[in-house]
Amino acid sequence: MQRPAALAPLRHADFRTLWLANLVSNIGLFIQNTAAGWMMTGLDPSPMMVSLVQAASMVPVFLLALPAGALADIIDRRHFLIGAQLWMTFVALLLCVLSWTGLLGPWGLVALTFGLGAGLAMSFPGWAATTPELVPREDLMGAIALNGIGFNITRAIGPAVGGLAIAWAGVGAAFLLNALCVLVLVAALWRWKRPVVANRPAPEPFLSAVRAGARYVAASPAMHAAILRAVVFFLFTSAVWGLLPLLVRHELGLGPEAFGLLLGCMGAGAVAAGFLLPAARRRLDRSGMVFVGSLLGALAMAMMATLHHWVFAALAMVIYGVAWISAASTLQAAAQIAAPAWVRARAIGIYQMCFFGALAGGAAGAGWIAGLIGVPTTLGLFALGGAAAAVLVRGARIDGEALREAPAATPPFVMPEPESAELQSLLAGGENRVLEVVRYRVPPARRAAFLAAMREVRRARLRGGAALWRLYEDVAHPERWVELWTIENWAEHLREAARMTEQDHAVLRHAATFHQGDLGPEAARYVNVPV
User: Fold this and answer.
1) For an engineered disulfide with 230, which of 110, 317, 355, 373 has Cβ 3.0 to 4.6 Å away?
2) At what angle do helices 171-191 and 13-43 cross, to 10 degrees?
3) 114, 57 in Cβ contact below 8 A?
4) Helix (H/G/I), strand (E/B), else coil: 475
């Protein structure tokens, strides 16, 4: 029997093992979220405090995603992920003990939820950047979508299990279940034999890695579009996460079992949609998929705002699940293919920092507004705002092709033999900036086209690690141009060539075609000499 297209990446053993273990871990995550949200409705039922529980799990990603991505890029990713999971296990066990002893108050719950969120923040970029290591390029899009399907399978199972655990044994049992689920992922990561990369360059210093990641994203239009679309989608749809516990308890008059089951409906809708995504992608590009998902999310919130019956709430949550998987998995894929391997965890970290910041801000903002005008009206406002914003940002396209790493045969810049011991010392010191210069001779008639090409060159240089880039035109001889950029130090300069993708090399070759001369543009490199 032919395997469904959505399940094709599971034929790779390492991906399959980690995917299943992550499935169990995410079940624990949703058990935890259900227990924390429901516990707060008993400790302090104000809309602000209930929404703060959701915000507390998301704010750490906003704060820690970039440093987490940098660490996941420069140290052993497997060890890094194991450490993050062990931290989450510790916090989950602490929640369990404090809830059983009656020592857990509302602010303690928020603080420990923040602690769990910190562990998730540290693992998210590393886990996302690990996927390309587990499957070949032709299965990457399917693997990213399957991660989304798995996440939403757990969204269907976890809340239902959490609601039942709360009803039968209390929230402490739910917190304990989360700890046990996370340990399953720890065991799978421990057994994973990550391949050793031959000729791996020396690790970048932490702060330098953070700056390089920020520069790459700042110079990548594809990342800009993915981040903008993600912020708009998650800012408005986050109202559901912040207000659903109150909607269930006060508007529908139901208990924790219904709360868990409604979240399960959302997960069921997402899973069903996930299996249909391969067919949907043949009809819609990535930008269209996110737009449709945004409109469906707005429809779901409008139904929750106006139709106060559990049947309609369940249907709305199914539609919300379809919207979530359609937009979230597509946006994640767009961000992942927009970054090369050397910076992938950092770029994804920045992307996740932005969308989790939108989630946290939207959830907290929805709670504050609901305290003033009520839950249904707030959901209605967020539905209208989400639909309008989706239309406004529809022009930000996220349909670019995956970046292709430059061939290994591409010659790097070779460090010249120093002429003196002083120069050798400067290059090895790691504290002296490097100035790189390329001189062009361009016919004045081709000035406009050359400037357009150099705009792309600027982005390529900045993505490669340039701290500053400038283009100068000779006042007396308009055919003469000088491109210059600075790199933090010689080690960063040597990494620069390895960071170039095939697309970057194509940009540089195109710019060189404007040069008038037999030998091509003249390049030179200088090191800063303190005086």
Assistant:
1) 355
2) 160
3) yes
4) coil
Whether residue 415 contacts residue 490, with contact meaning beta carbons closer than 8 Å, is answered with: yes
Task: Give the integer Cα–Cα distance in Å for 461 and 457.
Answer: 6
- 89-100 pLDDT, tens digit each: 999 899 889 988
Residues 155 and 30: their CA atoms lie apart, in Å, by 6
241: which residues sit within 8 A by CB, 6+ positions away? 54, 359, 363
Above pLDDT 70, what percent of the chain? 90
| Statement: residue 404 has pLDDT above 70 | no
| Spatial CA neighbour of 356 closest among 244, 241, 252 | 241
Q: What is the dihedral of CA 22, 147, 50, 323, to 10 degrees?
A: -160
Distances (CA, A) of 151 to 27, 363, 426: 8, 20, 50
The rounded distance, in Å, linking the Cα atoms of 55 and 51 is 6
Is residue 30 within 8 Å of residue 159, measured between CB atoms?
yes
Longest dimension (CA), the chain: 84
**DSSP three-state, residue 282:** coil
316: left (phi over 0), alpha (psi -120 to 50) or beta: alpha
pTM: 0.76
* Model pLDDT for residues 42-83, shown as the tens digit of each residue: 777 777 777 777 777 777 877 887 888 888 888 888 888 999
SS3 90: helix
| Closest C-alpha among 228, 461, 213 to residue 339 | 213
**How far is residue 206's CA from residue 74's CA, in Å, rounded to a whole number?**
8
User: What is the side-by-side strand order in the sheet with 480-487?
Assistant: 468-473, 480-487, 434-441, 522-527
- Taking the mean position of all CA atoms in its chain, how far away is CA 171? 30
Helices (H) and strands (E) in the chain, counts: 18, 4
